[in-house]
Write a structure and sequence with these properties.
alpha/beta, 6-stranded antiparallel β-barrel, about 25% helix, binds pyridoxal-5'-phosphate
Amino acid sequence: MTIPPPHRLRLDGAALVANWLWLKNQGGSAACGAAVKADGYGLGAREVVARLAAAGCRDFFTATWAEAEALMPLPEGARLSVLHGVRAEDMAAARTLDARPVLNSIEQLMRWRDANGGACDVMIDTGINRLGLPPADWAALEGLEIDTLMSHLACADEDSARNAAQHKAFVEVAGRVPHRRLSLANSAGICLGADYAFDLTRPGLALYGGVPRDEALGHIRQVAFPEAQILQRRIAPAGESVGYNGIWTAECDTEIAILNIGYGDGILRGFSNRGTASTEGRTLPFIGRVSMDLIAIDITAAPELGEGDWVTIDYALPEASAASGIAQYELLTSLGRRFERYWVD
Ligand SMILES: *Cc1c(COP(=O)(O)O)cnc(C)c1O
């Protein structure tokens, strides 16, 4: 028995592909890949990979081997790299699955070399001080069959001198280590200019509708649209408050609707009294605190709405982030498992 859930995530396939094409174009002659870790930033990695592969994308990135396994078999011509490299526990999967590890440490590269693992990618840490091999250890890469030599920018979403410093450090190490391709830029890095694109770019956020820097404003389209059903309609009498802790009080008798969705679905409490929903271009403000499974909205602007009707939660990422104080990345990856995800186009 399938019980239709009371909230859905509408996913715009044409917008996903348009975003990828814009990002690819910004990178000039570089190939454009796609980061699909965290289940395609919450959208559903299998479907994202299928759609982007059909559009011509060839290089995909997950964080873990469990994520890689879930994508098998890959579409014809697609390649997958696993960003977190190989732990001892990953070796069996790494040797059988059709994917390359991105080696990050001396331990990982010894593990891979001892196993005669074959082609791999390597992450050089040029200044994020998070994951990757320090440039000074370049000599340890001797003898590895490196497909893509990569690094990751720490501050690409800011106008920081560190961007140029990391670029310079990357070029230096690339001159010493044999490789087939070079890759540095994430979504924000792509916006820094074609200089940062090298042979392959690795956008994630902007594919899914995130705007990492102003250069992308007006070019990146929203992809994920949460929709929720009205569970109950009621009147909040003048002077009464709505929801936990009574943080919203009705100034006059107010028509409200209770949505069948909440922070348990990833519409987080930062949207309390701040978020909005909409129907046919009319805005319906969230009122009171967001609950685990319920959100109250003011439907004064759409009095025809009733039980069982659907509204869209306003979730354009830059605006939703500004309203809630929640990062665009977190807005996507928090979207819960209860949503029915459906693609249009
Ligand atoms: C997540 C990730 C990306 C994609 O970053 P966005 O900021 O989402 O574009 C690229 N490269 C690496 C190494 C990553 O971990």
